[in-house]
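Hi V.,

Quick status before I head out on leave. The structure for the redesign project is tokenized and pasted below; the design run finished overnight.
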């Protein structure tokens, strides 16, 4: 009987929607206001570093600088580099520009005009600018439209447009002026213009030589890019000569707001990419919304009798009234039908329940409260733990991306049998108890736990999913996080770790792969806890693990500032161990050498060195000045002065290096790493 009632409810709802939808659609159409144009204009006649407008509105990333001598943007920055090979940089407008109307999917129309020159570095005085320019060159320059203001692409043939962190659906568009031929990317020669849509491989390439333009001749060239968004039509000119004109739909490769500017790179061969001037104008379509089809003009005319309305205007005023009456009548009928059917069905179901089942009240569940998932729910969310859904793995298990029936994306950690069997005195009830305890810990810088799954064979934890992934992808990849974002990450992690310690808990697995970034690039700590031992006293265990957390946090800080991992094999022998190298640089007062040079001149060096000193403090022996996380947070927030570091590396009970950073005063700091 219950299914019969639900059938009639569904049938009635469908019938009513078929009646109401055309009316609502018509009213929505009437409520759409006139289209307007949103215009943005930029103009830079030169790029002098002493101009406050330039410094404020032009953001430099990677190896890029403002040249006072030429009044130009230069990529790479030769003043801070002895080796210009394999460098990448960007110069973009500091604020996002509206490039797409999301309601209609119409891309903005824009016009970009800029002058540029490719030259040798000042060290290469033998360059011949009158003719051949020794025919070497770097990789080239690109005008870019990208979704963020901190990513720097790979050097070499990637022209700093894209990097490994950019996924297949990364929205970006570029027009490249390439001076290297890369057959693997389909380049026709070493003097071409290419249009790139979400990929480093150009969808269209044009031989610039056909227009009599040679990028490597040392001359200043003028480029003009004109795009008509409503027609989806692009024109590219070099000087007065058009080199491309054709149909091009940019809408699949644009977000509503994008950052515009330039990127350039070098490979084994080098050149300086100079941008001397730039003007940019964009016009995007938008629609105003008005409360009804009645215009202010018609009201004024009707109120003061300023003429007779036409029959068309009159009908447009009367029509909403008829629609409103129909809408009210249909809704009243719908309410009556639903109320009667619901009452009948509920009465019959309650009678059936009274005979078969005892009356049982369901307690409402708070939203987002962690719950227990069934193995079938988790399997369905991960498509049967398909390999395409794997996000990563470590010694404790494998992470999967999952999608719940309500559309919510989650990350699921599936503990390995080896990890579960390796725990001393471990049983599943204790693990579930620890998961339950940690799931109740809430903080903006801790990954929320959505729930868990456990049966006779499997134990899993369901986390909230973070689309920007883990920090190591952004920190150690080819992209370059600016200093302001790195400092924010350090503070976020310190806040999250300090909160855990205040609750007598410990992370026990502090490293960059366990730090995730949300859509606003706020750092959150994940994968905390779940490292069990046979220690009887949880208070003693927490105390030891918290001290180890501080030590690991110190190494993490060194990684963030230096932009490299704790152990690197592709550097000189004396620099491979990050912790050892950092202490040696402190002893000779050369800590600035640790700061990631890829951040360029925008880094606040004094601030970066202060953060480095906080990281070194965290790696001191426990009885020789190692702070607690509460003090670390105060240091970072400038609420407390930093104690002076010892002039030399303190003597530790164990070899003091990143390789055995998990050993602190005889206790295992970070097992199962």
């Amino acid at each position: 009987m219950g299914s019969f009632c639900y059938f009639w409810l569904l049938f009635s709802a469908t019938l009513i929607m078929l009646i109401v939808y055309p009316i609502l659609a018509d009213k929505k159409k009437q409520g759409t206001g006139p289209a307007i144009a949103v215009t943005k204009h930029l103009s830079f006649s030169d790029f002098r570093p002493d101009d406050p407008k330039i410094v404020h509105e032009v953001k430099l990333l990677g190896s890029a600088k403002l040249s006072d001598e030429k009044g130009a943007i230069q990529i790479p920055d030769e003043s801070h580099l002895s080796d210009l090979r394999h460098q990448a940089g960007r110069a973009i407008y500091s604020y996002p520009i509206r490039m797409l109307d999301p309601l209609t999917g119409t891309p903005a129309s824009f016009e970009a005009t800029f002058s540029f020159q490719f030259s040798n570095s000042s060290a290469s005085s033998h360059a011949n600018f009158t003719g051949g320019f020794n025919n070497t060159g770097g990789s080239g320059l690109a005008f870019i439209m990208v979704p963020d203001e901190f990513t720097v692409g790979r050097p070499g043939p990637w022209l700093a447009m894209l990097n490994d962190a950019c996924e297949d659906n990364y929205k970006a568009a570029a027009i490249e002026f390439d001076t290297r031929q890369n057959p693997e990317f389909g380049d026709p020669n070493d003097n071409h213009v290419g249009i790139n849509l979400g990929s480093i491989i150009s969808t269209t390439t044009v031989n610039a030589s056909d227009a009599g333009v040679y990028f490597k001749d040392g001359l200043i060239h003028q480029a003009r890019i004109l795009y008509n968004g409503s027609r989806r039509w692009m024109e590219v000119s070099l000087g007065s000569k058009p080199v491309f004109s054709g149909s091009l739909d940019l809408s699949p490769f644009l977000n509503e707001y994008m950052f515009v500017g330039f990127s350039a790179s070098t490979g084994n061969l080098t050149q300086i990419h100079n941008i001397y001037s730039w003007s940019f104008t964009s016009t995007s379509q938008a629609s105003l919304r008005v409360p009804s089809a009645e215009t202010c003009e018609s009201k004024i005319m009707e109120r003061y009798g300023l003429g007779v309305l036409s029959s068309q205007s009159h009908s447009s005023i009367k029509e909403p009234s008829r629609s409103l009456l129909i809408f009210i009548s249909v809704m009243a009928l719908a309410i009556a039908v639903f109320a009667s059917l619901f009452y009948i069905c509920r009465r019959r179901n309650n009678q059936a329940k009274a005979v078969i089942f005892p009356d049982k009240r369901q307690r409402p569940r708070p939203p987002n409260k962690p719950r227990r998932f069934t193995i079938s729910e988790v399997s369905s969310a991960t498509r049967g733990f398909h390999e395409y859904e794997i996000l990563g793995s470590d010694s404790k298990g494998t992470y999967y991306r999952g999608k719940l029936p309500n559309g919510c994306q989650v990350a699921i950690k599936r503990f390995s049998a080896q990890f579960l069997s390796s725990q001393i005195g471990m049983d599943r009830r204790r693990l579930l108890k620890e998961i339950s305890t940690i799931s109740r810990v809430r903080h903006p810088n801790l990954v929320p736990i959505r729930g868990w799954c456990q049966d006779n064979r499997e134990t899993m934890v369901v986390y909230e999913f973070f689309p920007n992934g883990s920090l190591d992808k952004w920190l150690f990849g080819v992209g370059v996080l600016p200093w302001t974002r790195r400092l924010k990450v350090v503070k976020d992690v310190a806040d999250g770790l300090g909160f855990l310690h205040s609750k007598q808990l410990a992370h026990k697995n502090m490293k960059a792969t366990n730090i995730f970034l949300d859509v606003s690039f706020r750092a959150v700590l994940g994968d905390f806890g779940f490292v069990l031992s046979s220690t009887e006293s949880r208070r003693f265990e927490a105390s030891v693990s918290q001290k180890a957390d501080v030590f690991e946090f110190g190494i993490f800080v060194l990684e963030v500032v230096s932009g490299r991992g704790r152990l690197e094999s592709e550097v000189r022998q004396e620099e491979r161990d990050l912790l050892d190298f950092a202490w040696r640089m402190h002893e000779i007062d050369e800590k600035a050498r640790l700061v990631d040079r890829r951040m360029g001149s925008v880094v606040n060096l004094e601030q970066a060195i202060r953060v480095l000193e906080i990281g070194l403090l965290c790696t001191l022996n426990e009885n020789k000045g190692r702070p607690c996380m509460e003090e670390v947070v105060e240091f970072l927030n400038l609420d407390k002065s930093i104690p002076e570091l010892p002039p030399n590396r303190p003597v530790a009970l164990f070899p003091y290096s990143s390789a055995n950073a998990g050993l602190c005063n005889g206790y295992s700091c970070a097992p199962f790493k």
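Above is the designed sequence. The first helix runs from residue 2 to 30.

G. will cover questions while I'm gone.

Best,
W.
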